[in-house]
Amino acid sequence: MDEHDELHIAMFPWLAFGHMIPFLELAKLIAQRGHKISFISTPRNIHRLPPLPPNLTPRINLVSLALPHVENLPDNAEATADLPHDKIPYLKIAFDSLQDSLFHFLQSSSPDWIIFDFAPYWLP
């Protein structure tokens, strides 16, 4: 693939493994086609993702954005799997608080495309 044909695609899934894992699988498929991926999540979630195949690690950048503290959100809760159902609204508040950090990352990295999930209504 010619360098001019390579795309940089940022991916920003909701903080649930039922969303992050399919996004990661899509990232791998896109990276296999020669494109660069920035997969964006929180540090703990990035750490818990399955390992990337060695041949794709140069093409997939795992980007960690610190999840802001939100009252009533337990420490170390960065995914829906970490919470009882009644605490998930606090995770959504924290997720929405990533807006500034994400803006700065996108501004500095200038991706060609952004693939995002249902939750960041503010992203477009």
Automatic annotation (TrEMBL):
The keyword Transmembrane applies. InterPro entries: UDP-glycosyltransf_plant. The chain crosses the membrane at residues 12-31. Keywords: Membrane, Transmembrane, Transmembrane helix. The keyword Signal does not apply. GO terms for molecular function: UDP-glucosyltransferase activity. This is UDP-GLYCOSYLTRANSFERASE 91B1. The lineage of its organism: Eukaryota, Viridiplantae, Streptophyta, Embryophyta, Tracheophyta.
